[in-house]
Write a structure and sequence with these properties.
It comes from Streptomyces atratus. It is a single chain. This protein is an alpha+beta fold. The protein has a domain of 128 residues: Orthogonal Bundle (Topoisomerase I, Chain A, domain 4), CATH 1.10.132.100. It has 16 helices and 15 strands. It has a 3-stranded antiparallel beta sheet with strand order 2-1-3. The protein has a 3-stranded antiparallel beta sheet with strand order 6-12-13. Strand 14 and strand 15 form a beta hairpin. Helix 12 runs parallel beside helix 14, helix 12 runs antiparallel to helix 16 and helix 13 runs antiparallel to helix 14. The protein is globular, with a radius of gyration of 27 Å.
Length: 556
C-alpha cells in the first residue's frame, strides 16, 4: 500500500541557525530543535499552524508541563524532547498521509454524491478561487508533492475559508448538494500570537503553557487529547462538544477532506465542513491570541460577559498595539469589574515565569503576530498579517510594572506626535486652499513609518537594567527630533500658496492661516505632548497649541 509517514519522511520546512533551509520529519524536528532557528512555510499562517501541531505533540508526549517547576526542568534539559521519539512510534499509524483507513487529518473514503474531485486551489491558500493573481502558482495548482500537501492539510484545518461548499455523502447538513457557510477554520478566528526564542527548542518551550500556573486558562486534565488520539472522524459533524484544552484546539478538525493521489504526488482533493466552533468565550482554552470584551455579543446572546479574539489590523504595526500584549488584567479593566481586554495566555504564562524567577528579566523574547484577514463573507483570504516586536521579558513582570507602563506610554507619545504632524499637514493644505484630509492621512503614515524602527530598537533595550522613566524621556526627545524634522520638511514643501495663506473659518470665527502660523501651532502641539527637546526631562503642558476644529482633526 502507498505510504507517506510524517514521522520519518521530510515535510516540515525549517531554517537552521547557519541560515540554510531544510525539510525534516516530525522525529527530526524534535531531535534537532536546538540547532534550528524556526519553522518556515509557504505562508506565515502555515508556519503558525505547523507550530501548533508541534505544540500539541509536545504537550501530549511530555504530559505537561504540569507546573512551572516541571517547565524549568524541561528548560534546563537540552534533551527535553527525547520522549517524542517513542511517542511518535506509538501513534505512527495516525501520521501516515496516505493510510487507507486513517489518513492523517483526513477522512478515508470521503466523496460527494457525484464522486467529484476538485482542484487543489481549494486547499492552497495563496491561490484564491477565481482570483489567481499575485501568486507564484499561476493560474492554478495542478499537483503537489506529498510533503507540500501535508503542510496544506494542516493549514486547511486551521485557516480554511468559509462560504458554500459542496456537500459530501454522509453529512446530514447537506441541502441540495451543498453545505452553507459554517465559518472559517479555528485559527482563522484568531489574532495569532506566539513567543519566539533564540532557537526552535526555546520557541516550543516558551509556548508550552502550564494551565495550572497560567491565569485564566483551564484544561480538562487527562481528557485533553489531540486529534490522533481521538476516534477517527466520519464525513459529517461529530458530537457537539466544547474543547478540552490546548491539545484539542491546536488540532481541531474543522474540515473533512481527502487527498487524491497517484505514485507521483497529489492531484486533487475533496473538501467539506467538519466540526464548527464559535469563538465566543474560548479564552479559557485558547492561549495564542489576545481577547477583547464585546458588549455587542453580550447583548446578542444575553450573556453578562463575552470575550472575542482580538484580530490583527493589517494597516497597524505590531508595536502600536503593544498594550494588548503586555497590559495585565488589572490595567486593562480600568476600574471596571471585568477587564476590557485580555493579553494572550502564552504571554500570561511567560509573565508568570519571569515573576517567579524561572526566566531572567533581560531575556529577549520576540512576540510574533500572525493572522489572516478574510473578505467577501469570509470566502477568500484577502491579506495575511505577519509582524513582530522584540522585548525583554521584564515588561511582563507582574510585580514590577514600571517598564510595561513606559512601553505603553511611549506608544502614546508616538501617537500624539504623529497626530500633531497630521494636523500640520491639514493646516498647510487649508492655508493653500486645497483638500485637507488626504495630506493629513499621508503625513501620519509617514510619521509612523519614521518611528517604526526607532521604537522597536528602543523597546528591545528596555530590559530592566536602567531607569525606565529616563529611558522614556530619551524616547520622547527622539520622537520630538524625528517628527520635528518631518514637520520642517512639510513646511519647506508647502509652496507659495501656503506661505501667502488665506482666511479660514473656525469655531471661534474667521482668521488668517499661513504656513508660518501652522508651523507655530505644530511646534506648540509637539512641545505640549513631548516636552521641549532641549530640556533634560519631559515637561507636560509645555506650550499651548490651539484647539483644532473637530472637522479637520483626524486621529490615526
Amino acid at each position: 500500500m502507498p505510504s507517506f509517514d510524517l514521522t520519518t519522511q521530510p515535510w516540515i520546512p525549517v531554517l537552521r541557525l547557519d541560515g540554510t533551509q531544510d525539510e525534516l520529519s516530525l522525529r527530526e524536528v524534535f531531535e534537532q530543535a536546538g540547532t534550528l532557528r524556526r519553522l518556515v512555510g509557504d505562508l506565515p499562517t502555515q508556519e503558525f499552524a505547523l507550530l501548533r501541531l508541534l505544540l500539541a505533540l509536545a504537550h501530549d508526549a511530555l504530559e505537561g508541563p504540569r507546573d512551572s517547576d516541571h517547565w524549568a526542568d524541561l528548560w534546563e534539559d537540552e534533551d527535553c524532547f527525547a520522549p517524542l521519539a517513542a511517542y511518535l512510534d506509538e501513534h505512527r499509524n495516525r501520521f501516515d498521509l496516505l493510510d487507507a483507513r486513517t489518513p492523517f487529518f483526513q477522512v478515508a473514503g470521503l466523496h460527494t454524491a457525484k464522486n467529484e474531485v476538485f482542484p487543489l486551489n481549494r486547499i492552497v491558500a495563496d491561490v484564491p478561487n477565481g482570483e489567481p493573481f499575485f501568486s507564484s502558482r499561476m493560474p492554478a495548482v495542478d499537483r503537489l508533492t506529498f510533503a507540500e500537501a501535508a503542510r496544506w492539510v494542516v493549514h486547511t484545518h486551521a485557516y480554511d475559508t468559509s462560504g458554500i461548499k459542496t456537500g459530501v455523502a454522509g453529512d446530514d447538513r447537506v441541502k441540495g448538494g451543498k453545505v452553507y457557510p459554517l465559518g472559517v477554520g479555528w485559527a482563522g478566528n484568531l489574532g495569532g500570537v506566539l513567543a519566539e526564542g533564540r532557537t526552535l527548542r526555546e520557541t516550543l518551550l516558551l509556548n508550552l503553557v502550564a494551565t495550572a500556573d497560567t491565569p485564566g486558562l483551564d484544561s480538562d486534565t487527562g481528557n485533553d487529547l489531540p486529534a490522533w488520539r481521538r476516534e477517527a472522524c466520519g464525513p459529517g459533524e461529530g458530537p457537539k462538544r466544547s474543547p478540552t484544552g490546548v491539545c484539542d484546539l491546536y488540532t481541531w478538525q474543522s474540515r473533512r477532506l481527502l487527498l487524491h493521489t497517484d505514485a507521483d504526488g497529489v492531484h486533487g482533493v475533496v473538501l467539506g465542513y467538519g466540526d464548527p466552533l464559535h469563538a465566543r468565550n474560548k479564552h479559557g482554552y485558547e492561549p495564542m491570541t489576545a481577547w477583547r470584551r464585546s458588549t455587542a455579543q453580550e447583548k446578542k446572546h444575553g450573556e453578562p460577559l463575552v470575550y472575542m479574539p482580538r484580530e490583527h489590523d493589517p494597516a497597524r504595526s505590531a508595536w502600536r498595539g503593544i498594550a494588548s500584549l503586555i497590559a495585565d488584567r488589572t490595567e486593562a479593566s480600568q476600574g471596571a469589574e471585568a477587564a476590557n481586554r485580555l493579553r494572550p495566555g502564552v504571554l500570561e504564562w511567560i509573565a508568570y515565569l519571569v515573576t517567579v524567577g524561572e526566566l531572567e528579566q533581560g531575556y529577549l523574547v520576540r512576540a510574533r503576530i500572525v493572522g489572516a484577514q478574510y473578505g467577501t463573507q469570509q470566502s477568500v483570504i484577502d491579506e495575511v498579517v505577519d509582524d513582530h516586536i522584540s522585548m525583554a521579558v521584564a515588561l511582563l513582570h507582574q510585580q514590577n510594572r514600571e517598564f510595561a507602563e513606559q512601553a505603553v506610554g511611549a506608544v502614546t507619545d508616538a501617537d500624539d506626535a504623529v497626530n500633531a504632524l497630521g494636523d500640520l499637514a491639514t493646516d498647510l493644505a487649508r492655508a493653500a486652499g486645497s483638500e485637507s484630509e488626504g495630506p493629513g492621512a499621508t503625513a501620519r503614515d509617514l510619521g509612523f513609518a519614521a518611528l517604526d524602527t526607532p521604537y522597536r530598537t528602543w523597546l528591545a533595550g528596555l530590559d530592566g537594567h536602567e531607569d525606565p522613566y529616563e529611558q522614556r524621556a530619551e524616547w520622547q526627545r527622539q520622537v520630538h527630533r524625528t517628527v520635528g524634522r518631518l514637520g520642517d520638511r512639510l513646511m519647506a514643501e508647502a509652496g507659495d500658496a501656503a506661505w501667502q495663506g488665506r482666511i479660514i473659518t473656525r469655531k471661534s470665527g474667521t482668521e488668517w492661516l499661513n504656513s508660518t502660523l501652522a508651523g507655530k501651532w505644530f511646534r506648540s502641539r509637539l512641545n505640549k505632548c513631548l516636552g521641549h527637546p532641549n530640556l533634560p526631562d519631559r515637561l507636560p503642558g509645555a506650550g499651548s497649541a490651539p484647539e483644532t476644529d473637530t472637522a479637520t482633526k483626524v486621529h490615526a
